[in-house]
Specification:
This protein has 307 residues and is mainly α. The protein contains nine helices and three strands; from the N terminus they run ααααααααββαβ. A three-stranded mixed β-sheet has the order 1-2-3.
């Protein structure tokens, strides 16, 4: 899946503008939930910048210090983003909610809050639609959850989940704000902030799990492994592919290692020629495989023993 920079830029612009407006409205109306929403938008703005930075770093060419490239920079910064959503977004919102539940304050004029909420939902909704469209193009025929689990590019689903949480959070704040004035229960303002915080914590945990898995190193799917084995064993010099090891260095770069048993009657030169052929064929057929390491190994067809 390719990087979704368009959705990141749209989310960045929307969140930056909305954060400023929310802080202004929250301070004017003395609304804890609106301040929490402003914090949420500010954290999301920083998150988009970190994602763009991670994408840029991941595209740096390999060097002596990082011979396999800097692709995992994207996974690292994606993990940092998920932690920020948890700590700065969710944690502060929960704290604000707790304080205002314990010590509710009379709300000021909510008119500006409703204006801000309405405009924010429009902006965030527009950004969400762009994120959905970009994600749909990347996921192809896979269902949403399977596409998230199989995606090797966290920028494809991080923005989608952030924008989705933003729209849902705004809806929660709007409902609680209306009820707090209608029922004259200012404590509901704190409840809204608490619910927004819990929502952010849930989203951050999901994103952290996915980002951690990519950072730790995910390999090719069993189906792709089988295709690679079939492609390698088509070479007449190959007796059997014994093992396949792989790891994603970046969304589009895979490090592949094959342990292969070659026919016993081949000399060293013929094995080297076969290795060159197999490596070239695999890289042609599987464009995402950037590095191919092939290790010859002895294999006894009668006993199944290999060294």
């Amino acid at each position: 899946m390719a990087h979704s920079k368009k959705s990141i830029y749209s989310a960045l612009i929307a969140n930056l503008l909305i954060a400023v407006i929310k802080f202004f409205a929250g301070a004017f109306s003395n609304s804890a939930s609106m301040i929490s929403e402003g914090i949420h938008s500010l954290v999301d703005t920083v998150n988009q910048l970190l994602l763009l930075f991670g994408i840029r770093q991941s595209q740096k060419a390999p060097d002596a210090q990082r011979p396999f490239g800097y692709g995992k920079e994207l996974y690292f910064w994606s993990f940092i983003v998920s932690i920020m959503i948890f700590g700065l977004g969710g944690g502060i919102s929960i704290y604000q909610g707790y304080i205002h539940i314990r010590h509710p304050e009379p709300l000021g004029d909510p008119t500006w809050n409703y204006v801000v909420l309405g405009s924010s939902i429009v902006f965030e909704g527009f950004s969400l639609m762009i994120a959905i469209r970009e994600f749909n193009q990347a996921r192809g025929t896979l269902n949403w959850w399977k596409a998230v689990r199989k995606s090797k590019d966290p920028s494809n689903f991080l923005v989608l989940f952030e924008d989705g949480a933003a729209v849902l959070g705004l809806t929660i704040v709007g409902i609680c704000m209306f009820l707090s004035h209608w029922l004259e229960l200012p404590v509901l303002d704190g409840v809204a902030s608490l619910l927004v915080g819990l929502l952010l914590v849930a989203v951050s945990l999901l994103l952290a799990i996915e980002s951690r898995s990519l950072l730790m190193g995910e390999g090719l799917s069993p189906v792709t492994n089988d295709k690679i084995i079939t492609a390698a064993e088509k070479d007449p010099a190959v007796l059997k592919v014994l093992y396949v090891f792989s790891t994603y260095q970046s969304p589009n770069d895979v490090l592949l290692m094959l342990i292969i048993a070659f026919n016993d009657d081949l000399d060293t030169e013929e094995i080297n020629e076969a290795i060159t052929r197999i490596r070239l064929n695999i890289k042609i057929e599987f464009k995402f495989v950037r590095f191919v390491v092939i290790q010859p190994e002895f294999y006894d067809t009668d006993t199944g023993y290999f060294a």
